[in-house]
Amino acid sequence: MGKSGFIPVMLGLLMVCSTMSGCLGDDIFESGDKKGIPGGLTLACLSSAKYTSMVVEIDYEPGYMPEQSSVNLLKTRLQEVCDKPNGIQIELTETNFEHSGSWTANDVREKAWEHKSNQPQTGSTLYWQALFPSSEYSNDDVLGVAVDASTVAIFKDTVEDAEGPIFSRPSAEEIENSVLVHEFGHLLGLVNLVYKSPVDHEDKDHPGHSNNEDSVMYWAIESANLGNIITGELPDEFDNDDLNDLSGMLSGEIAVTDQIWLP
């Protein structure tokens, strides 16, 4: 399985990640590549040894601005785990990506780097980026994709389609909240992308994802079969195992690989 994630949603089936290909997709970058792999800047985020502040740049096409609740939730979740004494900021910029048709992971990566306001490692500030483009992923079941060490994309058209007409189904806003945190969870290296957890909480059939349905990194939130519609609340928090993994990586108790920067 590659490491440039995606999250599919099928008609009648909402998944935070899919089958064996999971949220981690089709292109692997070597650790020496400056773009890195999801998880390649985990320690840069967790530690304040060099990067004392963080900016999340959100570039969205006209009509595709993320929900304010998603922006606020992402900031909160990052503040909970990343030591940034000079703060974490979210910057939103309306952007024309000049892209037609569906998106591949490589399309996302290329357009992201074309429009980045700063390199991920700039002075004492760490920059991560989320794209909210028009249109859909090349697999039109995909909600979000993590494509390298600093970049994710969320596909709002597909998120909104996943909401469905059933009252008890999670709203598009709730889906976006969970998907956005989930994808940034992959940038944090979860689960087992750049380390090996001492706790067996990775789903064996869906590498890179949690087996705990109460974790935002859970491999899937799905109905019993394609004929049912999901009901209930979606998780939007990292569980204790996720948090302990992040703490262990920061302390050095858990070995971390494929890092672009080491403290």
Helical residue percent band: 25-40%
The strand count comes to 8
- The helix/strand series, from N terminus to C terminus, equals EEHEHEHEEEEHHH
Mean pLDDT over the residues:
84
Helix/strand/pairing class, anyone?
A: alpha/beta
Shape: globular
**CATH H level, superfamily name:** Collagenase (Catalytic Domain)
Distance between the termini: 28 Å
Essential attributes:
Collagenase (Catalytic Domain), eight-stranded mixed sheet, globular
Written overview of the protein:
The chain has 263 residues and is an alpha/beta fold. The protein has a single domain (7-251), classed as Collagenase (Catalytic Domain), CATH 3.40.390.10. It contains six helices and eight strands, in the order ββαβαβαββββααα.
Give the gist of this structure.
By secondary structure, the chain is of the alpha/beta class. The protein has helices at 42-46, 68-81, 105-115, 156-163, 172-187, 240-251, and strands at residues 7-10, 13-14, 53-60, 88-94, 121-122, 125-132, 142-146, 151-154.
Fold topology:
Blueprint: E1 7-10, E2 13-14, H1 42-46, E3 53-60, H2 68-81, E4 88-94, H3 105-115, E5 121-122, E6 125-132, E7 142-146, E8 151-154, H4 156-163, H5 172-187, H6 240-251
Parallel strand pairs: 3-4, 3-6, 6-8
Antiparallel strand pairs: 1-2, 1-7, 5-6, 7-8
